[in-house]
Amino acid sequence: MRRVRPGTTxxxxxxxxxxxxxxxxxxxxxxxxxxxxxxxRDLPRLWHVTLSVSGEPAPVAEVRRALEQLAHDHPFLLTSxxxxxxAEIRYWEEARDLHDAAAVALRLWGxxxxxxxxxxxxxxxxxxxxxxxxxxxxxxGHGPVPATPVGVHPFP
Length: 156
Known about the structure:
Blueprint: E1 45-54, H1 60-73, E2 77-82, E3 86-95, H2 98-116, E4 122-130, H3 131-139, E5 151-154
Parallel strand pairs: 2-5
Antiparallel strand pairs: 1-3, 1-4, 2-3
């Protein structure tokens, strides 16, 4: 996915590409921002994100410290679980659509690898679901364990 500036065109590799006036820029929504016109599909929505990463084993204490630093730098993180060779991060993202929420999630690990001291692991899984789906899973008993405390924890 490439960022697109308003008023520019991008070839999507085939017929049916959007005209310049139809192209949307990838944007994040700041906390507290309000919707000010436009189409209803452009309203920010909440998306539950689960990001899974994996790689060569690293000292568990360093993994924990790095995830705690990431949570400190970005308090939107709900829960992080980790082991010496993999981790899972769950959080809520506010975005216009699933594509924007997924794009932000896919950049999270790489963009904060150096500043938080995260291991050089790769993203091996990503799930992005809307709030209604998240709630229905929890209600059906298929969501995250309700007793899972917020914060950084080792895998059981």
